[in-house]
Design goal:
This protein is α+β, with helices and mostly antiparallel strands. The chain has four helices and six strands; from the N terminus they run βαββαββααβ.
């Protein structure tokens, strides 16, 4: 997983200027760290580059989403993160206006009652399951 694109003008306001972005994004990720160590973050022209190590491929996906769902970030590159290959199928979903986790679960799994699975797979990305926003990217495990 090397690169994902995001909506630069949508997201959680983490930093005010690009100069402070690396420090603020790193702090944001470390507050709910999904399992990455030796984290380094660089930001240039709306592109966040993540470096670090993890034993969990899901942690890498979550870190990318945590950085990419920040206002002002349009791409996340993570080619330099040392992580094992993902062994489960994961799809990415961009939240649309009017979506809820229930609606997303209904579409992804055919059962809206499985919405807690989506929340659990994104708990570092979604602080409150009732507060998702259009343009936000979520991981949807398929296995």
């Amino acid at each position: 997983m090397g690169l994902l694109s995001f909506a630069k003008n949508i997201g959680k306001k983490i930093f005010g200027s690009e100069d402070e972005a690396p420090e603020k994004l790193k702090k944001h990720i470390e507050e709910d760290n999904p399992g990455i160590s030796n984290l380094e973050v660089e930001v240039k022209d709306g592109v966040a580059t993540i470096k670090g190590e993890t034993d969990d491929p899901s942690a890498l996906e979550k870190v990318i989403l945590m950085a990419g769902n920040a206002l002002g970030i349009e791409e996340v590159r993570a080619d330099d993160v040392v992580a094992p290959a993902q062994t489960v199928t994961v799809e990415y979903y961009e939240v649309k206006k009017g979506d809820s986790l229930w609606k997303i679960a209904q579409n992804a799994y055919g059962d809206g009652n499985r919405h807690p699975e989506i929340f659990e797979a994104n708990k570092e990305v979604i602080q409150n399951p009732d507060l998702i926003f259009p343009g936000q990217m979520l991981r949807i495990p398929q296995d």
